[in-house]
Amino acid sequence: MLSVRLLDTREFGEHEELLRTTGVIGEGAMSRQLDSLVDVDVAVAYCGPRPVGCVAVRPQRRDGHLVADLRGGVLVGDRGRGAGGALIDWFCDAGIEELDARVIEVIIDDGVGDDALRHILSERGFVAEDFVEMTAPTHELGGVSLPDGVAVSLLDESDLPLAAAIYGSAHGVRADVDHAERDLLAVWNSPFVSRRESVMAWRDGLPEGFAIAYRWPGDPEDLWIECLSVGPGDGDGGARVARALLNLLRSTRDGTRSVSTGVTAAKSVEYERSGFEVQRRWARFRQVFVAG
Fold this sequence. Notes:
By secondary structure, this protein is an alpha+beta fold. The chain has 2 domains: 2-125, 3-Layer(aba) Sandwich (Aminopeptidase), CATH 3.40.630; 134-281, 3-Layer(aba) Sandwich (Aminopeptidase), CATH 3.40.630. The protein contains 8 helices and 12 strands. The protein has a 12-stranded mixed beta sheet with strand order 1-2-3-4-5-12-6-11-10-9-8-7, sandwiched between helices. Helix 7 (237-249) links the parallel strand 10 and strand 11 (258-264). Helix 5 crosses helix 6.
């Protein structure tokens, strides 16, 4: 008989072997590992009284939208008996009911989770998209050039409606401008946003593209591009503006050694042409839940 239960943090110690075997925690003393489990929900699947698998969820919650880093698994001898599916069902139920989520996204790093987990998510209606983290070193400011007629200014909150129109067009959600504006406002209001490095590109006074940059506390020498979108432009105009924005963001700043971003696998080639290299890969599984 399968059951799934959310662990109390005080129970982590007695499940240490399971947490290590499934990759939820790594090597080292359990006392140090507990620091890595702060703000992580861990659920365990039991076959009768025996723990057979677990899933660890590090959630980010925002206005009915749940994004979660997911890791864990089922013990080898207990696979194929429904424990993995029960754990994912628990995750979805927690997201929909307890967190009141209407959109759930699961992020799985390359090498974290196996094909069985991906299959389980796909069976439950999650659609996968592959992402790539790209990084490039900074360079001297003198190497920056802009296309003819293009000017760049710092992005201001008053520019967000204009940026949302570009963002919506680039992401195929032109009909829902309000949704695009809400998404960008959430990105803009993050505590990690670097407003002195987020920029807007203009051509003849009209918005042409923008980039919102973050500074992660754990990696202060890297500038992270959280969002970059450009208009279609004429011919290769949009691509030229995008390359110019990337070039500008890569210009040398005190204490910055690199610039990174996450893009879909399909777009990674364009970033490679701009001097970025692949650092890691991950898959994002996304599902929209419609309120009943």
